[in-house]
Design a protein that fits this description.
- There is one protein chain.
- Mean pLDDT is 90; it is low at 54-60.
- This protein has 339 residues and is α/β, with parallel strands linked by helices.
- Helix 12 (255-267) links the parallel strand 8 and strand 9 (277-282).
- Helix 1 crosses helix 2 (20-27), helix 1 (9-16) packs across helix 3 and helix 11 packs across helix 12 (255-267).
- It is elongated and about 90 Å long.
- It has helices at 9-16, 20-27, 35-48, 54-60, 75-80, 82-97, 113-121, 139-143, 170-183, 199-214, 230-243, 255-267, 302-317; strands at residues 66-71, 101-106, 127-131, 150-153, 164-168, 189-193, 223-225, 249-252, 277-282, 296-299, 326-329, 332-334.
């Protein structure tokens, strides 16, 4: 570079060994550029004596510094479910630590989808963390054409391929629950499922069935549908008891339904775990240990899920070329007195 010429953005990028777009974002203090890249660019700018044009700078950033967390679930379900409470808290903390503002959006009905897409396309958020778990939900299909990056919590209910997602090993967790019950001497192991239009609920049912079959047990007549609420767990367990009086264990697809199952068992004069063992799924930290007796549950960590989702999204916003795939997080068994 001749001595009488001012260094350009291209000069800074070349000196730092990064792309022009990364150099531009680093100089504009973009939250989505890695600390290492930002330090290299700023160091190159200092050494070359580069001073950005402030007018041009304001035109090229086009960043809001905000990420939308979109929950495509009826509002009442979201507010009553401890899993979503953990998701919202975890998202706020992880995004805040990254210097990003969180926008919370509810998609209560199908009629809310056009409004949601219009908002996201309107430049109000740089990206979205989306929970849209039900089959037939139009939101994931609508988001395919969105001009912002999207990462899903769990597999989208549409089953769409080519999506960035972070899920838990729901099937493996259910098999883990059945194995634990079988090893403790239980042979009539029923299950209360979640809504089967929900991939996680379908996977947990499949894992329960495979666990029984691997143990040489017949799953016939031992499942009853629920909807992840305490009331549904109580009703479903009462039906299981009426149909299978020799029931000696219940695997509930959520901790809330496990609480309902315990209520039904007490009403029927059955003691937990002496007569019937109970296992939940979620291992919610303020719910499972507080039950009477404390609930054995499949442990999953929503904070870990959110952390991985934010990591993927920040990488996408930073311009990294990431192959769309579902990251599956492991689950473990938290053993307490209910088994």
């Amino acid at each position: 570079m001749p001595m009488d010429e001012r260094p350009t953005l291209e000069d800074v990028a070349a000196y730092a060994g990064v792309s022009r777009s990364t150099a531009s974002r680093a100089l504009n203090d973009d939250a989505y550029v890695s600390t290492r890249a930002k330090e290299k660019v700023l160091g190159a700018a200092r050494e070359l004596g580069y001073s950005p044009n402030q007018a041009a700078r304001s035109l090229v950033t086009r960043r809001t510094g905000a990420v939308a967390v979109v929950l495509s679930e009826p509002e009442a379900n979201v507010l009553d479910d401890p899993y979503f409470a953990s998701v919202m808290h975890g998202a706020f903390r992880e995004l805040s630590d990254a210097g990003v503002q969180m926008l919370l959006m509810f998609v209560d009905t199908r009629d809310d989808v056009p409004r949601t897409i219009k908002f996201l396309e309107g430049g109000h958020a740089d990206g979205a963390l989306v929970f849209a778990p039900h089959k037939g939900d139009p939101l994931p299909t609508a988001l395919r054409l969105a001009r912002i990056p999207v990462v899903y919590g769990g597999r989208p209910g549409t089953g769409r391929r080519g999506a960035h997602a972070v899920d838990f090993d729901n099937e493996g967790g259910a098999r883990l629950a059945v194995e634990h019950l079988y090893d403790s001497g239980r042979r009539r192991i029923g299950t209360v499922t979640g809504m089967l239009d929900h991939p996680a609920a379908a996977d947990r049912l499949a894992g329960w069935r495979k666990g029984l079959e691997a143990a040489g047990l017949d799953p016939a007549d031992l499942s009853e549908p629920g909807d992840f609420t305490m009331a549904s767990g109580e009703v479903a367990t009462a039906k299981l008891l009426a149909r299978c009086p020799d029931l000696d264990a219940v695997f509930a697809a959520s901790d809330l339904m496990a609480a309902g199952a315990m209520k039904a068992l007490r009403a029927a004069g059955r003691k937990v775990p002496k007569d019937v063992a109970v296992i939940g799924f979620d291992d919610h930290p303020t719910l499972a240990p507080a039950m009477e007796p404390p609930l054995t549950s499949i442990h999953q960590d929503p904070r870990q899920q959110i952390r991985e989702m934010v990591k993927k999204l920040l990488s996408l916003l930073g311009g990294e070329n990431i192959r769309p795939e579902t990251t599956v997080l492991p689950v473990t068994l938290a053993v307490r007195d209910s088994t």
